[in-house]
Amino acid sequence: MAAGPDVVTEALADIHRRLGALDEGEPAAYIPELARARREGFGLALVSMDGHRYQAGDAAEPFTLQSVSKPFVYALALAELGLDEVGRWVGAEPSGEAFNAISLEQGTGRPSNAMINAGAIATTALVPGATPAERFERILAGLSAFAGRRLDVDAAVHASEAATGDRNRALAYLMRGAGSLACDPLAATDLYFRQCAVRATAADLAVMAATLGNGGVNPVTGERVVGERVAVQVLSVMATCGMYDASGEWLLRVGLPAKSGVSGGLIAVSPARFGAACWSPPLDRSGNPVRGTAALRELSERFGLHLMLSPAPAAPTVVAWPSAGTARRRGAFAVVAVQGALDFTAAERVLFELERGTAGPVLLDLGRVTRLDTVARVMITATLVRLAAGGRRVAVAGEVLPAPPDAPWERLGPDGDGPDRAGAEGAGPDRAWAEGAGPDRAGADGADADSAGPDTAR
Ligand code: GLN
Description:
Order of helices and strands: HEEEHHHEHHHEHHHEEEHEEEHEHEEH
CATH architecture of the largest domain: 3-Layer(aba) Sandwich
Mean pLDDT: 87
Number of helices: 14
Oligomer: single chain
Bound molecules: glutamine
Keywords: Acetylation, Hydrolase
EC number: 3.5.1.2
Number of strands: 14
Enzyme class: hydrolase
């Protein structure tokens, strides 16, 4: 056992400790019930794509989602109706204005985006259901699936907003008058007030954020909540519109899709890496939480999460490549061995190697490929077809790329059972890659047999 908390928990605790002293801003008071919030309440949480959970401070204290509900209900509407239909009712342009602005497009009356009140009300109005109760249940079930547990409504906050929410009703009536609201204004706003009053903790919010970052699959429960395309669409709008009129500055400094709410909640998503959340009620003049903004900015800097940073270099894609002099051969074939998850970038490396790195018969060994996305499959298949059409003899090993009956390539079994490797004792299919195949291994066919048993396979 190691002493003390792990590195991530310690980082959160450190940020929490230091920013606890930042006592600026005021909790929202225009919804009377929110003014009762504990101004010193402060929680932080982080969830990885593997569902690993970290937190600091009051991460288990419930508060109402308010505007943090907006991206998730937008996701549900997109999942039901698709971007074209949703886009008829709500735009995707930053408004550059406050969250409660009357920000409707000239001519159409369409609100600028789904992250401000007008756009969120228009979005909520799109959620299908035969009755108001059924529609709200759909929203609550959706939000709960994002969180990975059944959420509930804070009835006092709902009543408080319903009693004072005339500006939002006015927005709804304006939109209805302009033809840009899909249902009755009072029905739409009541549904919207309920969705804003759904209660969750910072720990829940981090799971919800992580679900968006994980392509719509909740990394804790494993449930697919929305499709990958929808998750990407929601993150895009969060990146440009999630922090109201501070969205540009936020993208510049923090560089993460995010969404704040007047109860002090704030989520930020580092796609394919983390979902993060903060809760602290005092707000700045844009209506964004003061501590949350500072905390997520620090997290992003500390962990290098800015969206525009190039991704961490992945493990090399091509691990045995003739052009580099690592002329591993298998029978008549020069071997191009590939590992890991293949996307566009990785597939480009592979095809470059196949096209320019080899002459004569070539074996593409995909035995260590963990994932072949559609783009990579198309690129590699087209390359093999091209080479075969040009008269090259091509072969493929590995299960990820099955050969259709008319495929112009030969299939070979897993590496290690080829005739030229007989005598490489004790070796499983993985051994050639277990230590990498550097230049020092050139020509030493079978010399890598010492390196690996099945346990080195990952
Ligand atoms: N329910 C709140 C409102 O409509 C949500 C606003 C917010 O969180 N920014 O005023």
